[in-house]
Queue: 3 jobs
Job 1
Amino acid sequence: MQGGVAVALLERPQRAVTGGPFLLSATTLPIADRAATVLPPRRAWAMRPVAAAVLMTTAGSGVLIEVARAQSGAEGPGLQVSPESSARFGPLIKADDGGGPLVIEADRLSGRPDLETLAEGAVEFRRGPLILKADRVEYQQQSDLARATGNVEISRNGNVYRGPEVQLKVDRFEGYFQSPSYHFGRTNAGGQADRFDFLDENRGVAYGATYTSCPAPDPAWLLSTDRVLLDTAAEEGTAEGAVLRFYGVPILAAPTLSFPLTEKRKSGWLPPSIKLDNKSGFELGVPYYWDIAPNRDATLTPSVMTRRGAALDTEFRYLEPGYLGSMQAYMLPDDRVANRSRWALNLGHEARWEGATVGEIDYGLALQRTSDDNFWKDFAGTLPSLTPRLLPTDAYARRRFDHGWGDTVAYTRVQTWQVLQDLDPASRIVSPYQREPQIGLRQRGAASGLEWQWETEANRFSNDDASLQTGSRLHALGSLARPWSPTGAPGWTLTPRVSFNAATYDLDQPLADGRRSASRVIPTVSLDSAWIFERDSNAFGRELTQTLEPRLFYVNTPFRDQTGLPNFDSAANDFNFTSIYSDNVFSGVDRVSDANQVTAGVTTRFLDRTTGAEALRLGIAQRTLLRTQRITADGTPITQRWSDLLLLGSTHLVRNWYLDSTVQYNSDTSRVARSISSVRYSPGPLRTLSTSYRYTRNASEQVELGWQWPLNAPAREHAAAVQARDAQMLEDFEGRSRLAPLAGCPGAWYTVGRVNYSRRDSRITDSIVGFEYDSGCWIGRIVAERLSTGRSQATTRLLFQLELIGLSRLGSNPLKVLRENVPGYRLLRDDSPVVAPALSTP
């Protein structure tokens, strides 16, 4: 072998054969000599898998075969192969092809050296993932013409191409594939063409080509073209006369369109988007994708709204070695409803600068702005934000210093807000303070058994509300702790801690006593004692490990009068299982609660001994005041000795059921002050029902219902198939990529949704209701979404999408809305990794 890969030509014997495969040679040799005969190379010819789309998937993976004579050089009569003899064709494969040995099998093999080679009867070429089958394959060496006829079939990497005849001039790679059909395993789609012409090594032309994932003879959707040019060197395809039909009705057409042949990005028009809502009417947008450079791109979406007029939505993204970011701008020059121009801007930039003296500095900018207060109502979802009425501008820079015992961070920041107010006084919100600027230094570390953290920071606070106090604040926070185990073994940790909160103010408006400056220092001591006990348990028919985790937490903070001081950034913490073990009931710096209190609680967990998954959790905690707390959120001292009792419970003991509940119980009034409870039933993928109940006494009471559920027998069969596939993927997690995509189930109907109902207001607040239909080769989705924008106002949108399996999605995209709002929602065609049920959590 001369750097090649061996090729064995095997004629199927007419009688049973024992022993190894026969070795074929150009001359009849004694059996003892056959294995030692290696013929020298003569001339190479290529045989490639060819079909209408072969050029896209197999170009460059050709097979080079050398046809050789015996070393004796005897011309002799034509080579005739019989069951009693075989021949070996010596080094045959292009060195860089890397596909392993080539095996050629046929009922009859014959030929004449340097003239022709002929294989007949169930011919099969195999090399690595490539298999070519035909009734007859011949090669004319003088004309360099290879021809395969009769039931030609080529398969490679799950793609299959069939046709009656392939003819190819090998060296020039010119020829044709007559009436090919093709099927792509990755998309489970294919089509056929009248003819495919090979122009050269890199270019081919398909005439009358079609593509669909629907079954013949009458596919529900069909993409047809007059002519398709494929150029693998340019990594581009060009289609002429392309028409997309849905049930025979043309829905998209293009005289000429181009598309990439690889995963490489390419500029061009994207599928149109369609929206319908009660604010803007019907909206049609046609996105254009601009591949500016490998590290830059942009998407421009011109759109037309029946009520408001024409708009342009643009997004620009960039990625460099030292920075990355994006910019999104929405422009509506003439809103016919509001009679003015409307716009929105969303910027994000993150970068790292490396200097010889200062080291690495991280810096960035996040900015969101709109043209008016009502933008968030009229164009819901345009700006991605968890607080659509509070739009931030945040510029920062920070430098981190890493030490062996911890890290130190120096930082500076400017933060401002655009507050979108409502005309209804009851719906107005308090404008947060702006930091112009914020400069600080913080450190945390541990050494010699001690743990410490501190920060010092200077802020300049301003506010658009002239009635609020403004000014500057310099503060310092710090704590020192010494965790240790009294028993010297794990299971019991005792942590004494001392901390302080110091602040000084320089104000623009005088305080009640006329001062423009003030300061205070507040110390705190605490002691945290936590235990963890474990024992093996057999409960609920399972082998479990039970933990018992008691905790005692003591805090003592002296009273310091803060009523006359400004409050720039403090607010009361939510009362829950985390905050009850904190030393301050406020967040931020400006307010520190006085305390002389003990918090006691205990949690027990049941863990699956095999997987570690939590099957059951129960907890209880309560705070005891040893003196009246005078610093409170509403200014009213708390004299109640015992705080509300916190109870929690969550379980997945019952198969397919997930329960979670937290209750805040007031023992003085013997009434529930607040509770959050949820129940989810999920017997498998695509089948989820959930409900939750949120209650706050004298404030709110809400019920939420969410679901994704099959409505008919085909949908239930499809859900069962997805569940079986998930189980298979879990058994062979590393080999899941070898599994073929799961097909749909024709005629499957699903319903999805989430509804929030306010019992206090007796109205539905936010809601999503939709249906999904899987025909087997296309999926239709229609989703109605209602977003509450005020006590008596709401924006209602209708989202509908047509997903052509194996091609694209047309219309508005409700998938993001469904994923974010429907608990446990899953795509009908989802081949993403799954999580073992034993590792899932409620």
Job 2
Amino acid sequence: MNITEINIDGFGKWQNKTFPINPQLQVFYGENEAGKTTIQKFVSSVLFGFATAKHPAEQYLPKTGAGYGGSLTFTVDDAQQTQYRLRRTSGKNGGDIQLTNLTTNQVMPPELLDQLLGPVDRTLNDATFNFDLSGLQLLTTVTQPELMANVQRVGAVGSTSWIELAEQFDKDADDLYRPRGQKPALNQQLTAYHDLQAQLKAAEASYPDFVKRQHDILSGKQRVAQLGDHIKELTSKRDELARIKQLWPVFEKYRDMSDGLPDVNEKLITAEDYADFLKLQTQREQLMQTSVRQVAQLKEQTAETPHDVQFYIDHQSAFKSQATLFDQIETAIHERQYSRQQVAEQSDERDQIVAKHRFNAPWPTPLNDSEYEQVSRLTRAGQQRATNGSKTREQWLMMGVGLVLLLLGLIMSSGVKWLFVLLGVAGLAGGWFNVLDWFRAQQAHGTVPTKESSISELTQQHHMAGFPVDTWLVLQPDIQRLNQLTNQIDSLKSKIQQLNADINHFFEGYQFAETQLPLTNLSAADALLKARQYTSAKELAVATVQGQSQQRLQLIRENSDLQSKLSEVTTSLQQVMQRYHVQTPNDFENLYQQQLQLADQTAERRALGNQLTPEWLAKLTSYQDLSAVDQRQAEVTADLQSDIEQRDQVQEDIANQQALFARQSEDDTMPMLRQRLANMETQLVETAQQWLVDRLSAQWIDGALNAASADRLPAIVERAQTYFATLTLAHYTKIEFINEALTVTTSQGTVFDVTELSRGTAEQLYIALRLGFASVMADRTAMPLIIDDAFVDFDRHRKQAMFNLMKELAQQVQVIYFTADAGALTTFDDNQITEL
């Protein structure tokens, strides 16, 4: 089977995705979480069924609500190279499937899929053809029977049912007998048989002991009876001594008690006076305790006023005076900030004007209205002089020409003489008239004699040096704006200076509270906020303290009332004590207790007399003191303990003898034991025969399947041996199963158990076994080899050897390789690589 296309409708992260597959070697490359394992699980799920809800992690349900499932397109290696499309979608029992023969364009029955897969099910596929790094790390559990079972599943037609039958025979045989078992029937029968043999042997040797044991039991019981009587006597004596020891203090008190009574006041305290005394004393103590609590509360409330709150109270008027200016100072801070912003903006505009015209300090000042008009006339006069200057030159030229013509007319003597004279006189008259008119006009405007002096004064006065007069009027708007900006900036700076003074003056008002309210390193806004918060918090604290002051005043009033009551109770108490000539409550109490003691002693003497009967008095007087009682008690106790231990030991011996005697009495006779042994032998033979039948049946089936598989296990091991040598660069040359355990041999002949190999080498061994299995069994089933990044523990040389081996195997079995190793891509052709 060669997969040629994967189409995913919805599976895990993939939706509506199609991947063309190289029929020989296909490499999927992608970083972590690119979806490589999802594609691998999709191929297995479409071939063998979707995971159920019992294994939600294996379902890969799409998160976006897309349809669950997809299809695989594959070609089978038959005579027609038939192409199929297997489509599996969400449904019961692993999903609904549709199998289509694309060669004939026919929908095929779903049962055909089992025929196409042959003996390969999900378990065999995961164990052989589909593996990743975690699967390789299970190599230490591979045994020869497991590998042979996989060979049998593929090598013999219908072998699955026979293998299941053989496994059942093996299970039945194990249920009958296991070498180290305890519960199997044959194991239990063997144990019972051995026990019967031991019983029979013991019965034959133990009869003389039976009679002797019976005699020992009887003697032991007599000894126990004797010890029991003695223990009773000692127990009675021990109890008597314990009673004497218990009565000894009473006996001493009775013996030492005098007949006289203690001296007391002749007048006895009546019960009524003592009751009044107790009542008044209790009231007095309660009132005194209440008074103490109230005084303590007053002290606590006085002490509870924190230092910072007391500081605020002491300076509350100053803080409140500052608080009235909060809004004003906040407005001043905002105005200062706005004024600073205006200064910055206007300074920028002024700098731009200065830079534009390259003004130098001192900057030009604007002309007033009369100066502006004067410069305007000067400018117009200059323009007019330029125009009149050309006309004046023409008039002087006309006068020159007229003079020349006049002189020529006077000199000439011909008839045109007068014509020249007339033309000359006319030219002189016209030119002189125009020149005279120009002088009159200059004198009328008054500019001729004062021009130079006026310009010089204006240039110096308005700092216009370096600027032509004809540009002055053009510059006036910028000069006026410059002057306006300068005045505004100066005004704003004066305002800011005043605001700074007001703000600083406000914060100077907090200098007295610098330790409680430090504002030095804060901005004005932050300092004002802190001052507001401090004032609010302390006002609240002051209100709390004032409330406590009201409570303290109430406590003072209550304590005053209480002191009055205490004085009344004390007076009444003193009146009671004076009737019995005592001054203090302790004296009164002592007097009353002496009276009670007298009554108690009288009652006690009477009670002692009731306890100490003449019999007990006789016993008590037989001992000199309590130490003699203790000594006798210790002797009796030691004797008693010794007898008890002897009795217990004898009883234990009797119990042991009786147990042995009972066992001998209950044991069957020797003929009965021999009969039971014979019966057990018969059961053993029957069970052993059944175990042999089950075991031989399993071995016969296994041998038959081995023969049907054409003894392929050696071929698989030999092929795996070749692959393993390739992967390890000929360091290991042999693979063997020794006592069903997997071992390898180096080129120098050193043998290693698989558990002794490094992780990378162990993984290479398992890959060699899988590849050997796939290549040898390819004639029975050619499933694609699907490898999910299983070479991360390989060094670069062995990894390259693995890639070369994959290319070699791809000529025989399709290989689909998933990897996150970008360096591996250089080994494969572009048409073999799909980047996710």
Job 3
Amino acid sequence: MLSRTQPTRELATVLFTDIVDSTTQLAASGDQVWARVLDALDAVTRSEVRRRGGEFIKHTGDGALMLLPGPTSAVDCAGALHSGAEQLGVALRVGAHTGEVERRGQDVAGIAVHVAARLMASAGAGETLVSGTVHALASRSAYLFEDRGELDLKGISEPVPAYSIRQLAPAKPAAAPAVSEVGSVTRLLDQLRFEEAAELAADIDPIALVEPLAAAGGRIEFLDVDVTLVRMLRDLLERLPEDAPVGRARTAAKLAFELRGDPASAEERRRLLDLAIELAEAARDDIAISDVLLATIHAFWEPEGVRDRLNAAERVIALTRSTHQVDHELEARLARVHALVELWQVHEAGLELASYARLAARLERPDVNVYVASRRAMLAQISGRYDEQARQGEIAYQNATQARMPDADRLRLAHRWPVSRDCETGNETLEVGLVMLRQLAELMPGNYYDLDVAAVLLDSGRTSEAKVELIRGLPPLFTSTGYRWLAAATNAARVAAAVGSEQECLRLYDALLPHEDRLVVIGPNFLGPVGDHLGVLELRLGRVDAAIARLRRTITALDEIAALPWAARSRAHLAEALRAAGDGEGADRELATALDLARSLGMDRLVSEIQAVPTTSSEAVWSLKRDGNDWLVAAGSEQARLRPNRGLEHLAVLLANPRRDVASTHLDAGMEIVPVGAELPRLDEQALAGYQRRLREIDAECEVADRAGDQPAAVRLEEEREFLLAEVRRATGLGGRRRTAGGAAERARVNVTRNLKRAIEQIQRTAPVAGAHLATSIRTGLHCRYEPAPGGPSSWQIDTRG
């Protein structure tokens, strides 16, 4: 497998330029004037290369290295660069060769690069010198090639056939002042000094400003609006002549893109993009069309436009085969990842992300690597791989910091948020997020952050405050749309179902219903299926049967894409709906399954919520009794006769000793009942660590009980401490050295675990509710334990006499 820095090879036409007599001109003009000339030439070079689908690689002193998609475009670009240099009062020498190049990060290497560089060095003022390969492959209808014979080039082992393309007119000594100012504007925009750039831009030829302003940005956070840049783009669009359709198309598209954070500009954005696509398609300019399509994707990220976004992204990807616009391809592939996830095509999204990552690896750009790691974290979150999500989130943050992204800290919190929300029971991270969201609500009004605040308040248990924020945030949600609309609407639905009015729930239900088949993704975060939120709202509105049907469909779909955390949540919601319909046993079964899944994923918050839910059978007594050679299990309405096996004997012992660790060696030896106070075998490492951790917790809880004067709690904690200390002392030798369990204990663990698994599977086939409860409640290892989960009885009657 290729490493990330392994060079890749591709066929391209290499173009080198250099300014003739640059040292002499620098001495004559002075540093300040010469810097403006270089800036202007750089702007012209980048613009001409981009127009032809090429790639600017790097500066080489007073020249540049570029890749063009083919010989004809390279020759055409060379002619345009000579003309641009002539307007600036300088002359270029240019060399070109077509061959294989090696990609090494953002640079290129290989024999083709050396040949092009040596040809450039052999060219005269105003001359383009190309290899025989370029001559053979380029269209010669518009150019006159002069055969220069075979040249011996330094460092090249064999003579290279060379052809000259000479400019018809010599370079003029004077430069147009307006053109030379373009470089200054470009430099100021690169330095994010937009206000100074705006002052200079007013006196510059508008066509020359299209490229610098199209590339401008990076000064503000996502969804904010840079009013200075917007003003410059509006002025430029008004000044551009009618006979510059491509420039007008690109400027209109850029303006619509920059307005995407202003909810009030929706009509203007639509009008601008309609104009842009009309102009670009009329000009048949693939690069301009690609520009407009990408602006459309970002400027109209409304929930109803997901398929339009997917189609636009796929169209841009197809266009890059001819335009060779790597940045466009990256943006389009990232947009496609999001659209595929929203449409439940998570596997396909993973494949698309892999393509994006391979393309990004060639560039070695930290800003691109941010999105690779961030979207990997999102896919890990969907499947419940929280450790991987946290790891990729940290990689994304490190790259964002390296790329000097203004919202790097906010990105870091966005990645930590789901892990904290799902896997921690404390509210520390939620409180930090709450502060950030309140700031964003003030900074970017109209982007529904008030509803995110409401959701965090609900998760923190501050229900009264959550209700106030819900009331404050709903009016704009019902009267507008935008990038964050669907995420905000699902957060609002969750809060309304918990603390809102019936009218609020009904309005949110009607608003979300058109998007019932969508998954909700916002940046790197996955907020689950709209179907789950609709099901909870239906339950709140008394539509119990509809809620059950919808939640069952949603769970089936979640299982198909292995979205395990939300499958656990939706099962907990289904249990609530089943209980409302009078199906207590079905509710207990779903709740037990949800609890088992949440525990396996480490979703401590959901585990706590489920354990707090009272179950239908919480007052029931179930039984496991011998009947001759067979066993009988009775669990509510379920009764089953079971063939005898060792696992049922082990199970009887555990059920008779709930919430106690019983050694596998005792079970394997055939001990029927462990009497209270009987010596239990030594603890394994995991149990010992758990006891030691609990002892530390008890110390803190005793202090709280003492300060509060809670004598019963203090007595209970002290009794628990004495028990745990006895267990730890029994598990360790002199000086605290660990006593080992030995080979016999390990053999007993294997036997007992296998026997219990077979017994529970046997029960599940004939008594599924009891089987699901036992599968969730039985813990195995060197010590086994029955830890009753929700959905079980208040106690078990055990009779092993037969």
